Amino acid sequence: MEAGLNRFTMTPQKWIDGTNVKGIVSKSGRYGGTYAHSDIALEFASWLSPEFKLYIIQDYKRLKSDETSKLSLTWNLHREISKINYKIHTDAIKTYLLNDLTEMQLGFKYASEADMLNVALFNKTAKEWREENKNLKGNMRDYASLNELLVLANMESYNAILIEKGLEQKERMIELRKLARNQMLSLEKLR
């Protein structure tokens, strides 16, 4: 009713009392002032200054971009480690398992060993993943989490050691499955 009168002024304390608002406090006196939750303060400042609002939006976009970039770098690093360990893994296969195979048979053996790792970690072969994800490009390892990539790199190194020791694929699968489960559980506890 008073808002249309020339003598009317809206103070923070009147507004707080009139609306029973939460998140804003107004104190009188020498060290008084009006204090608001940061979300309310930013919204109020955005309303007062369109320039400030644009600054907030740009800064938010910059922060999100930096966050995404850092996550991407970490993921790419883990993916590269996994690829390097894959080389160690394939060298062990070539040295210890492929003495009498043709080039065509060699390709199947590499795929078989890679799928053993996939099943041990992801519970599916590469072919099963592709059939479930026809709209995605790349392979299942390209979509793995950081923890999965780290465990995969460890599995490739460990499988190379098991191959050198002469363990059969069935025995290696059991060992690798245990390794994958234990390491995934340990990494999940870190969060």
Helix share of residues?
55-70%
SSE run: HEEHHHHHH
Note poorly predicted spans. Answer: none
pLDDT averaged over residues: 84
Count the E strands: 2
How are the strands of the biggest sheet laid out side by side?
1-2
Structural class: mainly alpha
What composes the largest sheet? 2 strands, antiparallel
Question: N- to C-terminal separation?
Answer: 55 Å
Question: Any idea what the radius of gyration is?
Answer: 30 Å
The share of residues in extended strands comes to under 5%
Oligomer: single chain
Report the total helices: 7
- Backbone shape: rod-shaped
Could you list some keywords that capture this structure?
single chain; 191 residues; mainly alpha; two-stranded antiparallel ribbon; 7 helices
